[in-house]
Amino acid sequence: MSPVRRCSRTACGRPAVATLTYVYADSTAVLGPLATYAEPHCYDLCAEHSERLTAPRGWEVVRLADSAGPARPRGDDLEALADAVREAARPHDRPAAPGHRIPDPAPRPAPDPQLPITRRAHLRVLRSPDS
């Protein structure tokens, strides 16, 4: 099988450049850039068929802006992602970087001394008073 996706129209073998999706609830046909993955309820169209696309009477065609290539993350997006990864990896007992404040964890209630406690590695099971 060819790695290039082909137009979904019958007897058309041209490479696909756009993806067509129907939104039945809104009576809308949405034509946008070629989707990253082929989906079962979407139709890939070549340049000619995407330009000539019409919708049934009463339906609206929405043509999304076609970009010259795949969308690339902006610098601030990558920075935010890197900050989130650093935050998740930082142990909570170390102080945060200057300007950042780590919220205090919620206080845990003291266990009832009359209830037996079972320990398993890092977990502990508190028996309910009903059992």
Overview in brief:
Helices cover 15% and strands 21% of the residues. It has helices at 47-51, 75-89, and strands at 18-23, 28-33, 42-45, 60-63, 117-120, 123-126.
List the defining traits of the structure above:
elongated; four-stranded mixed β-sheet; alpha+beta; 131 residues; single chain; two-stranded antiparallel sheet
Report on the structure:
This protein is an alpha+beta fold. It has helices at residues 47-51, 75-89; strands at 18-23, 28-33, 42-45, 60-63, 117-120, 123-126. The strands form two sheets. It has a four-stranded mixed beta sheet with strand order 3-1-2-4. Strands 5-6 form a two-stranded antiparallel ribbon. The protein is elongated and about 75 Å long. The model has no long low-confidence stretch (mean pLDDT 76).
- Using the alpha-carbon principal axes, give the shape: elongated
Structural class: alpha+beta
Rg for CA atoms: 28 Å
In round numbers, the mean pLDDT is: 76
Assign a percent range to the helix content: 10-25%
Distance between the termini: 62 Å
In total, how many beta strands?
6
Q: How do the helices and strands follow one another from N- to C-terminus?
A: EEEHEHEE
Strand content: 15-25%
Q: What ranges have pLDDT less than 50 throughout 5 or more consecutive residues?
A: none
Give me the number of helical elements. Answer: 2
Main-sheet strand order equals: 3-1-2-4
What does the largest sheet look like?
Answer: 4 strands, mixed
- Multimeric status of the protein: single chain
